[in-house]
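Researcher: Please predict.
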Amino acid sequence: MVHVREMDGADISAVSTIRVRGWQAAYAGIVPQTYLDAMTVEGDAVHRRHLFSQPRRQSRDLVALDERGPVGWICFGPCRSEMSGPGQVGEVYALYVSPDLIGQGIGRRLLEEAHTQMKSQGFEASALWVLSDNQRARRFYERAGYQADGAIQDDSYDEITLTELRYQRVLRVQGL
């Protein structure tokens, strides 16, 4: 049984492990292996502690827990890119699940809770970016109601440029 709660500082090491192992599993064959091999849990934890300690940070972090402790993490907040259309847009910045637990509904549970919290903050839609070659993630988000909206951006990893696609979905008020 998994439950979701707000992340706290004691979760940072576990979240960094989930994120780094998640990157290394999900992006193998997509992101250059040299980049993935250079990622460390310790380095990520230092960066995450810095982000987490910012007094004016607008992002929210949730963790999914089972009997082992944190097994999934999602980070979301206001959309960082210009979006056309009515209403405020939130953004899912990151969503990772322990690689050995993918496919067990943990990511879906985290995403649902993030959507609930975004709606309570007044966001009418949610956006996210996904690597175009990450077919598994694209299918996951499409099943969750996201659609590619035509926006793209490029990111470089060890001098290799990869394209990301922006996806978005409407956050409907429950009962409508």
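Model: The longest helix spans residues 12-26.
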